[in-house]
Amino acid sequence: MNGETVSLTVTDTHDGRRLDLFLAEQVAGLSRSQAQKLILTGAVAVNGAPCRDKNYRVRMMDAIDCNIPGPEEAEPGPEPIPLEIVFEDRDLLVVNKPRGMVVHPAPGHAGGTLVNALLHHCSELSRTGGEGRPGIVHRLDKDTTGLLVVAKNDYTHRALAQQLKSRRLRRDYLALVRGRVSPRSGRIDAPIGRHPVHRKRMAVVPGGREAATRFKVIACLDRFTLLQLSLETGRTHQVRVHMAFLGHPVAGDRVYGPARQPDLPPELGGGTALHAHRLAFIHPRRLVLLQFAAPLPDDFRAALRRLRVITQGNGSPEPS
Question: N or C, fewer C-beta in 10 Å, the chain?
């Protein structure tokens, strides 16, 4: 029980097994009663949607995500942390997350998270994702900036989770990656799972969960490329893993890219150049399409200005 999300794929050996029994067999240190509690509190998702039915029979190729709290994890409390709210109504919020903010409490990050800020802003948040993650439908990494949607009630959370699962919730990113990407556009279709050696990292692995990312070159800037990326699936660290797999890790990413990056534009302050800049979904209650865009943060924008100056000085035109 180490405070992490365990991702599993059901094989033919376990086809038809009860969900609680499957988890107890597959997750080290997890008893059947503990598995049942996690299921009932909404900490287990099947194929991207929370499942609270301990009697559910898993099927071959089901994707199971189990959020296991760490020993010190407790229900988060409100903290007066500023939020940039792009949209809000009685059902949901759309927020623009800054760099350096963790989305929800986890080992090593008990406070100062987006969840703590949300609880101070509004007392009513969905509990479908578990007590430690109220309102959280999808996540962004600590160093990733940009848009995410937050559910205020369970009805909205379930509806948004279903859109996420059926790929109707659109998420587009801007990323500065290392090297010159060719071809100018394409689709990365490579399964992602837990790294076989480094268990806190993800990797493209045989038998991993389906993962697909579309990319388009926006500009070639010195030794970097600015990309627009669209997620078809929502795996942990998907953009970072897929770009590293392509041989073009995200600039500033020291987990999936080089440990030392002396050529990184100093404006980034050592941060990762990844921004969730567009978000679109159907409002669960109003049934209208909502679309949002967040401009690049100042540090990312300043880094691009520097690289454009260098590129023009080298006589290397950007693609139109």
Answer: C
**Cα 65 to Cα 239: distance, rounded to the nearest angstrom:** 19
To which H or E segment does residue 307 belong?
helix 298-313
Catalytically annotated residues: 141
Structural domains for the chain: 4-68 (3.10.290.10), 85-165 (3.30.2350.10), 170-279+296-313 (3.30.2350.10)
DSSP 8-state code for residue 109: B
Tell me the pLDDT band of 67, cut-offs 50, 70 and 90. Answer: confident
At 272-297, the pLDDT tens digits run 999 999 999 999 999 999 999 999 99
- Read off the pTM: 0.77
Q: What is the DSSP string of 204-247?
A: E-TT-B--EEEEEEEEEETTEEEEEEEESS--TTHHHHHHHHTT
Average pLDDT over residues 139-168: 94
